[in-house]
Every structure is written in C-alpha cells, then in structure tokens.
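Please describe what follows:
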Amino acid sequence: MRCFRKRSALPVLGVLIFCLLFMNLYIEDEYVVEEDKRLRDASTHQLNSDSYGNTVREFSNFSSINVTYQILAGIPIARKRFLTIGLSSVKRKKGNYLLETIKSIFEQSSYEELKEIAVVVHLADFDLTWCESIVQDISRKFSHHIIAGRLAIIHTPVQYYPVLEGLKRNYNDPDARVKFRSKQNVDYAFLLNFCANLSDYYLMLEDDVRCAKNFLTTIKKVINSRKGSNWVTLEFSKLGYIGKLYHTHDLPRLAHFLLMFYQEMPCDWLLIHFRGLLAQKEAIRFKPSLFQHMGYYSSYKGAENKLKDDDFEEDLLDIPDNPSAILSTNMNTFENYEVNRAYSSAEEYFWAKPPSSGDFYHIVFEKPIKISKIKVSTGTEDRQNDILHHGTLEVGERLVGTKKNKKCTTYLRLGDFMNGNFEMDNIDRKVLFNIDCIRILVTKNQNEWLIIKSISVWTTETLNQ
C-alpha cells in the first residue's frame, strides 16, 4: 500500500484538464463504445502449456491492451459470478501478507457466499522465481478453492509493460518512487482487463487486507438499496484503493485510463479522477468499513506503513437490509442533496429547506415486505438543529397510482420522532399486514432546514437477491 504524504495539487490541474477533454470525446464517441463492446464480447480464452502453466491468448478488451496472460494456477472462470475480487501483489523487502489476505476472504465468507465469488491474484513481479514460489504456497494452502474454480493466479510477462525508466518526476518524487507507482498503475490495468467478463461487479483490494465477516452479504445489501441510482464507485474503506467496488462493464475503460496516465500520479488519485469524469463528483463511502489494512511494511522499499481504518468492524451484527424502493418527497430539496442520499449507510444525507406541515418523505418498496425494525436519524454533528422537530413515521399498504408515482391507500402511524430520531423494534409483531410503504410526515411548520441523515430498514426474512 502506498504511503501517503502531502503534495501540491497544482501540477495535477493540467493533467486533469487533458483527462476531461479526452474522456469527454471518448465517452461520447459511439463508435469507440461499440468497438469496445465488440472486442469484449469477442475475447476468448485459449490455453497453451508453458513453464508456468496455461496461457490466455487473444484476450483483449481494448485494441491498446493486447496482452497474453499466463495462468499460473486455476482455470479461467467458467461461470459468471456476482463478484470478482482482484488482488495485485509484488515481492516485498519485508513481510508478505498475500496468503493471509486470501485466507481472510475465504474464511469470512459463508458457503453460499463463496458460490458467488471469484478471486483473481495478479502476481505482478518480474522475478519469476518468486512468482513460482508464491504459486506453490497458494496452491498448497488453497487447493480446494482452486479446484472449485473460485481462485485463479495470473501473471503478465514483462514485454507487455510500457517504459518504466526515465519517467516524469511529478510531485518531485524520486525516480524509484515514480517507477514503483507507475508500474503499480499498469499492474492494476492488466488485472482489471483480465477480470472484465468474470462477474457483474468487481472489488479492488490490496494484498495486505483483512475482511469483515460476511462482507459480500453487506455489499449486496448496499447495491440493492441503490438500485435505480447511477454510481461509478462505491467505497467500503477509506484507505487508498482498498474496498473500491465497480460495475464490470466499466473495467475496460478504467484499465485503458490507468494505462494512458500510468506515469502521471498514484493509482488512488487516478481512481478519483476516473469516477469524476464519469459524473460521480463525490465519493460514496459506507460505514462501517468492511476492509482493514493489516500490513506493517509497505511494498515500496519495505517502508513502515501503519495506516488503519478506524471505521472498520470485523463482526458486523446489525446491518440494515434496505430493500429496493422508489423514493420521493414534496420538500424543497437543496442543491444535489437528493432524496436517495438518506436511504443508505453512506456518508451522505438528504437536505431540504424548511418543511411545512403535511410535507413528506416517501418510500415505496418493490414488493410487500415484513419489517422487524426501522431507524431514522435526522440532523448532523455540525448541523444539530436541522432535525425533524415535529413528525411521525407511518407504514402503509395497498398501492395505487402509476409505476413512478405510487402511494398507499392506507397508513398506520407507528410513532413520533423524538429529538429528531425514530427507532422501533418488533414491528412485525405489531403490524399484521405486509408493508408496501413507509412515510415520514412533517406535522408542524418549522423554521429550520431538515437533514435526514439515514433511514435503516430491517426485514424479517433474508432478501432474495
């Protein structure tokens, strides 16, 4: 993991402007997009034997990434999974945490979750003796996962790498550091390129990470709660490029982007620019974090790296389900603090100008559900008076209206907000009908603005995802 330090943002400006211009042309160029799709669909895995095992040939998602991968262990994933987890690893001067990271991924996943996971390890060091040794270690310890087709190890030969010497010394970095971070960008580009067709979603991890229990189930709940909203990156850790989630259809473009600007800046900075270029201006990060940095020594010259995510919780016991729903309000929303921002565990919120009696925040579920618990928080630490001062929470049944403008015909009042908050357990024992709607209703005019920080819903049955 890269050690952070303060640097001036000014040298980035020129590069960013160029990125914006280029990506704008690229994204809007219909021919390029169609060609990308054609190449991705046409890519095939052809296996040939060599000293390292099997080789994938004619695998290319973009014409500029024409690379032959060596399969060091495992087989190309035959069945498309829900999630691919990508790890890129190089030899460290001190310590090696790769095996512990792989172990954590598998041990923190249930048998059912393992069916939906594929793990791809990219051994990105040019020392082939080291690669061979690591393959043997992984194969001995995780042979059953390799046989089950959920673990593969790949390598990209050195001849496919661009120039790594004499690069631009942006931010006044020494040559060795520029080479290290530039190669790291290429390492990840090749890994992303390989994983583009293996699953619906892709999770970027580092090779020195500990996972939270049942992290996949939590990720699926978050994805489900954001159905219908546009996002490029969801973040499940605040550190570097740990725990960054992508749609796999974005991977070819991201791989291309990393290769284009591999020598300009560190990978985590490029990832921020990438999601900004695809119109996600702000980070969408979830708490508690699902992944923790556990390495003590950096992969760069063995330097000490004690970075920790203080939002990490290894045993997540009470994560809300937040089933898929259509969200609406008649309040005067402030700027881009839209209605969907409250219905998640992300660090974001819904913000409206002073509401009046009768104003509402409405949640309509995709299908009727049984609810065990509801928790709503309003206001924030720095805006403690922007709470719902007078309001009730209701649940409803019997939907009427159009697909985009549904509402319930019958509502049952569960209770009032107290000091801006509402929380109730055992709702399924008090409400006998299946719930179609939740309505937060303002019962008195207020002069203060309103922030709905979070809405959490727990169901009595496991979601059918």
The CA atoms of residues 27 and 33 lie 7 Å apart. The chain has eleven helices and 20 strands. Confidence is low (pLDDT under 50) at residues 1-64.
